[in-house]
Amino acid sequence: MSRLLLIAVLATASISLHAGTKNHHTGGIQSPINKEKLAPFDIIHTKITTEGNVATFHMAVSGKAGASKPTPTGQLAGSDVFSYVWPTSIDSYIVGFEKEAGILALAVTSHPDFDDTPLYDESGDGNLNNDGNVWHSHWVVLQPNEECGEGALGVVDIPVGTKPRLPKTWPGLPILLDSPGLSPTFNSEHVEVRVPFDEIGIVASTTFDGVTAGLRVNQSVHAPLLCVVNVIDIASGDLSLTGKVNQ
Questions:
Q1: Distance between CA 101 and CA 162 in Å, rounded?
Q2: Average pLDDT score over residue span 15-20
Q3: Does some domain include residue 232?
Q4: Residue 219 reports pLDDT greater than 60
C-alpha cells in the first residue's frame, strides 16, 4: 500500500470513528467532562428514546459505568447505595403509585448489604436474597426532606398504618420504591435500561434529567429510611429536567 493511500485510509477511519462517537452521544442532555468527579459517575450524556411502547433510558459517563460499587458494611443501617438515576416528569401513578406522589425516577443501583428485589435472582445462583450488589433497577419516588439534610432529597416513606397504592412488584420496604425486574445493561462508558409501558407514547411529552448519587440507609425506619446524601453529578447542572424524550 502506498504512503498516500495509507494516509487516506487512516484519515477515513478517523473520520468514521469520530462520526460514530458523535452520533452515539447526540440528543438528550450533553454534559462536560469534569476531571474532579469520580469518572464512573461523571455524566457526559443523558437521553431517553422510544420505540413503540418501549423507552430506553441511557446515561454515559467519562469513565467505565458500573466500575465502582459500595464497600460492604455488614449491616443494613448506615449502609450505602450507589446509583445512576433518571428523574422524570412522569406521574407516579403510571407505574403503580398514588398520583403526583413526588418526583418519579428510574434508578440503577448497587448496595451489597441488603437485597430489595425479592422476586428476582440477578446473580443466577438460586438464592433470591443475596443480589443487592448486582446492578439492578428501581422506580423510586423522591421528595425534598430536610431530615436528609438542607435541600436534600429522600425516598418517600410510607407512614405507619397507611396503605397507599403500590405497584405489584413493590418489595415490601416502607418506602415508595418498586422492583420491576428491568435489567440494566452496561457497555463501556454507558448504562441503559429498556422500560416497557402499557401504552404507546405514554412518555412522549416527558422531561427528564440525569443524576449520579450515593444514598444511605438511616439507622431507623422513617428517619427517613433512605436519603440522598451525596450527589456526584447532575446532567443539567441544576436538576431542571431539561431533557426531552426523542430530542
A1: 14
A2: 33
A3: yes
A4: yes
7 domain-assigned: no
SS (H, E, C) the chain: CCHHHHHHHHHHHHHHHHHHHHHHCCCCEECCCCCCCCHHHCEEEEEEEEECCEEEEEEEECCCCCCCCCCCCCCCCCCEEEEEEEEECCCHHHHCCCCCCCEEEEEEEECCCCCCCCCCCCCCCCCCCCCCCCCEEEEEEEEECHHHCCCCEEECECCCCCCCCCCCCCCCCCECEECCCCCCEEECCEEEEEEECCCCCCCCCCEECCEEEEEEECCCCCCCCEEEEEEEEECCCCCCCCEECCC
Residue 10 lies in a domain: no
Q: Looking at the domain assignment, is residue 16 inside a domain?
A: no
Q: Which domain holds residue 217?
A: 29-244
How many folded domains does the chain comprise? 1
> How would residue 21 be classed by pLDDT, with cut points 50, 70 and 90?
very low
Whether 121 contacts 137, CB under 8 Å: no
The pLDDT of 36-65, averaged and rounded, is: 97
* 6, 103, 175 from 3: Cα distances, Å: 5, 59, 66
CA 233 to chain centre: 12
Cell 460514530 belongs to residue: 20
